[in-house]
Amino acid sequence: MIQRIQTVYLILTFIVTGVLVFFIPLWTLNNGKAFYFMQDQVYTILLGLSTMLTIISIISYKKRQNQFVMGRLNIILNLILLGLFVYRSLNLSGETVTVSEKGIGMFLPIVAIVLLVLANKAIKKDEDLVKSVDRLR
């Protein structure tokens, strides 16, 4: 389970989508306050679903095909989340004199997508290896 590289990628994805979003603000509002994902219900639901899919994918390490499908769904979910972040950032006004409004937290779904792609690649490699061994029997 933990010795497989895809589990490591999935744990890193869990850290990005489930832990870092509490500490890294998405952007800064005009009044100087940081905007976290918890302040918008849509972001909370999407990040919660992404985190739950990651946890379920980690737990279902014996079912590689289900793990692969959940990874694909998680990638689509993070793409939707990224699209919402980009849409919101384009609607924000530009740079102010004192503080930048766009934060680094907007790029966390990109990191999650990259980690999920790497995990899916490793899952596919595992599945191909198991199929090739079954063929030799």
Q: Summarize the biggest pleated sheet.
A: 2 strands, antiparallel
Task: Give the helix proportion (percent range).
Answer: 55-70%
**In one word, what is the shape?**
elongated
Strands of the widest sheet, in order across it, are 1-2
The class by helix and strand makeup works out as mainly alpha
Count of individual beta strands? 2
Mean pLDDT: 84
SSE order? HEEHHH
Rg estimate, integer Å = 18 Å
Q: Which stretches are poorly predicted, pLDDT < 50 over at least 5 residues?
A: none
| End-to-end distance | 24 Å
Provide a count of the helices. 4
Describe this structure in words.
With 137 residues, this protein is mostly helical. The chain has helices spanning 5-19, 41-59, 64-91, 108-136, and strands at 27-28, 34-35. The protein has a two-stranded antiparallel sheet with strand order 1-2. Strand 1 and strand 2 (34-35) form a beta hairpin. The radius of gyration is 18 Å and the shape is elongated. It starts with a helix and ends with a helix.
